[in-house]
Amino acid sequence: MPITQDNAGVFLPLLCQWLQNSRREGAEGAEQQLCRSAVQKLSEYIQLNFSVDESNLQPGSCVASDTEICTMYLAQEMRKK
User: Fold this and answer.
1) According to the model, what pLDDT value does residue 46 have?
2) pLDDT per position as a tens digit, 9-36
3) By CB neighbour count within 10 A (0-12 exposed, 13-18 middle, 19+ buried), where does 14 fall?
4) What does the CA dihedral 28, 30, 31, 32 come to, rounded to 10 degrees?
5) Where are the domains of the chain?
6) What pLDDT, on a 0 to 100 scale, did the predictor assign at position 64?
7) Half-sphere exposure (Cβ direction) of 4: Cα atoms closer than 13 Å
8) How many CB atoms lie within 10 A of CB 42?
9) Residue 53 pLDDT
10) What is the 8-class DSSP label of residue 50?
């Protein structure tokens, strides 16, 4: 599935929410590293390919250090559901 401005706007908040929830639970492992990577790469992709109004970003949302995309991992996780 190609990344469009619409679906990127859906996936990024979901990834950020999952990452924040896993941090609250005290989990830190391979899944969290992949999620941080996914957020980072998706954020970079959005910045390169879509115009983003940064004034609309919510305070406390994921920052660059929280991020990278592992599309293969996400695709596998989506197939499991």
Assistant:
1) 80
2) 788 888 888 878 877 777 677 778 887 8
3) exposed
4) 40
5) 5-80
6) 43
7) 3
8) 22
9) 52
10) S
Which one, of 48, 33, 36, 37, lies nearest residue 3 by Cα? 48
pLDDT at position 26 = 74
Q: Is pLDDT above 80 for 81? A: no
User: Of 10, 18, 81, nearest to 42 (Cα)?
Assistant: 10
CA 6 from chain center: how many Å? 14
Note the Cα 70 to chain centre separation in Å. Answer: 10
Structure tokens at 21: 């929830």
Can you tell me the distance from the alpha carbon of 57 to that of 79, in angstroms, rounded to the nearest whole number? Answer: 30
CB count within 10 Å of CB 5 equals 11
CA dihedral 10, 20, 50, 38 (to 10 degrees): -100
pLDDT in tens, 41-67: 888 888 788 765 555 545 455 544 343
